[in-house]
Amino acid sequence: MSYLFNDTIAAIATAPGGAARGIVRLSGPDVLDYLNRCFQPEGVCHLEEVRYPQVVAGIVNLRDARAELPCQLYYWPTERSYTRAPTAELHTFGSPPLLEELLLELCAAGARLARPGEFTLRAYMSGRIDLTQAEAVLGVIDSRERDDLDMALQQLAGGLAGPLNRLRSNLLDLLAELEAGLDFAEEDIEFISRDELHSRLLEAGRVVSSIARQMTWRGQTSGEPTVALVGWPNVGKSSLMNALCGDEAAIVSRHAGTTRDYLTTRIDVGGLVCRLIDTAGVDHQDRESDEAAAAQQMRREQQRQCDVQLLCIDTTRPLNTWEQGQLSSPPDTPRLIVLTKTDAAQSETDLPRGLATSSKTLDGLDLLRRAIAETLSARQADSQVVAGTAVRCRESLIGAAESLTRGERLVGGGIAGGGEELVAAELRIALHELGKIVGAVYTDDVLDRIFSRFCIGK
Asked: Fold for domain 226-382?
């Protein structure tokens, strides 16, 4: 598809079939000329005199029609229109033959039949909306339920574009400060401290992770949310998984580290089906084998990308350093604290507040199921992303999150010689990935994939 916007396009903008009212829409530099050929305003009004958006009553003259058609013209003569070009909508009877005749009249005058989604594409290319809002237009059209419509309207109003643009602006400022320090490295000037750089990278990573989780939920092809069991080895994750699903889905052993890979099963929590994942236990021995490294990388990814994580705490022993660190840090995804082995708990153990459970006596499992269901339902209600956006943008958000994480680790580990350049490079990658989401960075192939799903007239 070629994107030349110096012509005038026209299309029927209402759904197929008869109705009380139908709309023919046109937009482009020659709108006024084409209107003057078929539309006659009432009274002494001349369209050339219209200087601001308004509604003009009149009639439509069609060559083959036996009578004049009453019509209301919604006219945007300036760049204040949806496409930032002169735009008009002719509202008249919703008879398909009449609307088609009116469209033919406009095309005979010189207008071109619009391609699918071309009005919205022009709005995007002119900067009126970004790509997430363009996809929200399609979400409005495709909505079948009220919740889907509300979500699409919220995204169209900037519910996703706003946070993303603020994030990009903050990262651009951060990159500018970092590069200013590089440009004046010989001077005794500190444009940004290491602590501030670290803090701002962490905050940006949290924002990206939050948006990514929304898109993971909306973009899942299976439609099933994921719940990950996370914890130190031998805290009872596998036993808890077996108790929740009612069978021997996981391997249970007293030997720490039995679950080297991950196991998954489907469970029903209050009528909501979800996938329960038993992740590998945290490797406290820092083994460097390929198998161990892969298992730990998989655990971290599942902990970051799941819809709810169950942080399991063994009540038969005191908290260790890793568990204390987990509890003191805000989680990347909604988290429930699950206290395990409460049938053998040590009363003097200093434990956090959580859901007390026992895989042996099954105490607390109903409360845990209910808490999982409530957390997932709240998560679903909070989603503000239409499915099309989630599918397109998930990889870009993951890429941005990974770049920010690498930058944060470079700073947190102490920047050595040349480290500032590496952090700046990671920031540029993150900005590039975020730019692809809002459309600041795009290719014709991406636009074709998005707008080919639209219908003509939108």
From this structure: Rossmann fold (3.40.50)
Strand pairing of 272-278 and 263-269? antiparallel
Q: How far apart are CA 148 and CA 140, in angstroms?
A: 8
Cβ count within 10 A of residue 96: 14
Fold of the domain built from segment(s) 161-220+386-439 = Four Helix Bundle (Hemerythrin (Met), subunit A) (1.20.120)
In Å, what is the CA distance from 89 to each residue of 19, 27, 86, 147, 422? 16, 9, 11, 29, 53
Instruction: State the DSSP code for 68.
Output: P
d(C-alpha 351, C-alpha 340), whole Å: 11
Q: Which of 401, 389, 412, 411 is nearest to 131 (CA)?
A: 389
Q: Where are the domains of the chain?
A: 9-129, 161-220+386-439, 226-382
Mean pLDDT of the chain: 83
Residue count (the chain): 458
Distance CA 170, CA 430 (A): 12
Report d(CA 38, CA 60) in Å as an integer: 6
Q: Tell me how far apart the alpha carbons of residues 147 and 155 are, in angstroms, rounded to a whole number.
A: 12
Question: Helix 96-109 vs helix 31-38: angle between axes, to the nearest 10 degrees?
Answer: 120
Q: Is the dihedral of CA 5, 37, 13, 65 positive or negative?
A: negative
**pTM, rounded to two decimals:** 0.64
> Whole-angstrom Cα distance, residue 25 to residue 457?
7
48-95 confidence digits (pLDDT tens) = 888 899 999 999 988 766 678 899 999 999 989 999 999 999 999 999
Q: Please report where in the chains the tokens 């007293």 appear, as a residue.
A: 254
pLDDT-based confidence at residue 253 (cuts at 50, 70, 90): very low
Give which of 20, 397, 420 is closest to 211, Cα–Cα. Answer: 397
> Collapsing DSSP states into helix, strand and coil, what is residue 87?
strand
Q: Can you tell me whether residue 373 is helix, strand or coil? A: helix
Higher local confidence (pLDDT), 245 or 186: 245
CATH superfamily name and code, 9-129: Probable tRNA modification gtpase trme; domain 1 (3.30.1360.120)
Candidate from 117-121, 261-265, 313-317, 373-377 with smallest mean pLDDT: 261-265
Q: At 181, which helix (H) or strand (E)?
A: helix 161-183
Averaged over 30-45, what is the pLDDT? Answer: 88
User: What is the distance in angstroms between the CA of the first residue and the CA of the last residue of the chain?
Assistant: 17
Residue 307 half-sphere exposure, CB side, CA atoms within 13 Å? Answer: 28
Integer CA distances (angstroms), 180 to 9, 420, 443, in order: 47, 11, 31
